[in-house]
Each structure stands twice: as structure tokens, then as C-alpha cells.
What we know:
The chain is α/β, with parallel strands linked by helices. It has helices at 10-39, 48-72, 126-131, 165-189; strands spanning 6-8, 74-76, 92-97, 102-109, 120-122, 139-144, 147-157.
Amino acid sequence: MEEKKNLMSHEKLLELEAERDERKEVIRAQIAQKIKEAREQGDLSENAEYDAAKEEQRDNELRIEEIEAILKNAEVYLEEDIAKDAVGLGSTVTLLDVEYNEEVVYKIVGSTEVDSLNGKISNESPVGRALVGAKKGATVEVETPAGVLKYKIVKVEKPASAKGAKSAKKAAEKPAAKDEKKTTKKKAAK
């Protein structure tokens, strides 16, 4: 079964890579120091600092695994991938709620970037699915448990720029290729 691609912006890719690197290079060392200091206190059976540090270590390692799984299947959407006249990933859309005559603004993002409190909704959400591909002036209907919502698309804005996204996508693919070459060279040397 093919794994689902994690669509994301170039900025989100960089954010996740930075978090992963911070957790591997800095936080791991800090936690290891906490564990070492807690061990030096003696009896580990009733050592709250040791237990807390071990729990922090587990949480950190789980988050690193989670980030690496996301990055493994990352697919960066580029500016040229975004339709010029229709709603797509990266679009900021101003909608008019037809029933309440209120405007709402959403940015359509991949599922790894969802932040509903800041107006970032997934292209896979009911509203996102209804909007993707629609054009300014269109009215879309969204099925919800509370009933059908109707929105008129008032404005569609594209991201300011996705400069460097192409090179970032290629760079994200390169480390794996380098690792394969190293492995092949090691095997050949044996």
C-alpha cells in the first residue's frame, strides 16, 4: 500500500527540519545530562528527577520519529503548482458566508500545517475539499453534520513567493541519495 504524501509548504518543510535537528543535536544532549545528574543522586527507584528525565527522553524520541515519518513522505507544493485562477494549496481565500452575510478568510494548506485558530485549513477538510479548484465568484456548498453551508468566493490570493522551494525539494531528496552511495561504497569496499 502506498503511503500518503504529506503536502506542505517550503516554510513548513524547513520548520520541521529545524525542529528535528534541534531535538537531535541540542535537546538529546540536555536530556542526557539531566539523566546523568539524576543517576548521580543514587537510588533510582524513588528518584523523581530521573523518572521525569526518562519520560522527557521518550517524548523527545517519539517526536523525532514522528517528524522523520512526516519528512519521509513530504511533498512540497511549489508556486507553479498553484492554479493561477482557482483555489489550491497555498491559496488564501476570502469567503462570504451566504446565510449570515459574514466574511471569513482561510488559507488552504496540507494536513501537516493545519492551524484552525489562525485560519489555516486542510485541503482534505470538508471546506477545503469544496474550495479546491473553485474560482472567484463561485458559490460552494459544504456538507457538515449541522447542515449545508454555502460560501461565495470573494477573493483568491496566491502566496507572495515560493522562492527556493524547488531547490529545497531537491535538497530534501539528496541526503537519501548520498546515504545510498555511502552504503554502496562500503559494500563494494568489503
